[in-house]
Design brief:
The chain has helices spanning 3-25, 29-32, 47-62, 94-99, 101-115, 119-122, 146-155, 157-170. It is mainly α and 175 residues long.
């Protein structure tokens, strides 16, 4: 017999041997199922029996062991360096804004905004940079492929003759 056939036969034998070992090692799922002969035949379960069973399973889930509550413990150490100065209390009312500097600067900026020239009025085409070669340095340089070079060579009759001669030299018919 050839070595290939022997290797295939050994491989098939190993496959079935490993498969049978795995099957014997895994528990049979049918063994864990209750058989009808294990329980006395009482008849079908009623709705009340099902309800009691569901409530019993819910009550078992709801009663986890209470975990002890740990008292709060601060891990921050307050030192003189970390004490933050508190801001003075300020009263925010309409009267304080109307008499304050904040309100006056807001009103001044609001009136100046209407007096300023808009973007359409200030912009002119002469001030705009319209160079189209601005991003040319970011463009990828096209490197000609070998196929492009060969197709260009076939279009030139002189290089086509050279290729034909090289082909005849390399592929001799009578050697």
């Amino acid at each position: 017999m050839e070595p290939k056939v022997i290797i295939w036969i050994i491989g098939i034998i190993l496959y079935f041997w490993i498969k049978s070992r795995r099957a014997s090692a895994s528990p049979n799922p049918e063994e864990n199922l209750p058989r009808p002969s294990d329980k006395p035949n009482v008849g079908p379960m009623t709705f009340e029996d099902l309800l009691r069973e569901i409530q019993a399973s819910k009550n078992a889930e709801k009663e986890p062991a209470p975990s002890p509550v740990k008292p709060f413990q601060s891990y921050e150490e307050i030192t003189e360096e970390t004490v933050v100065e508190t801001l003075p209390e300020t009263e925010y009312s309409k009267e304080s804004f109307s008499s304050g500097e904040t309100y006056k600067s807001y009103e001044r900026a609001k009136t100046e905004a209407f007096q300023r020239a808009s973007l359409e009025e200030t912009m002119s085409l002469e001030n705009t940079d319209v160079k189209y070669s601005k991003f040319s340095e970011y463009q990828a340089i096209k490197v000609p492929s070998v196929a492009d070079k060969i197709s260009a060579d076939f279009q030139d009759p002189e290089t086509l003759k050279k290729y034909f001669i090289i082909n005849e030299v390399l592929n001799r018919k009578w050697t």
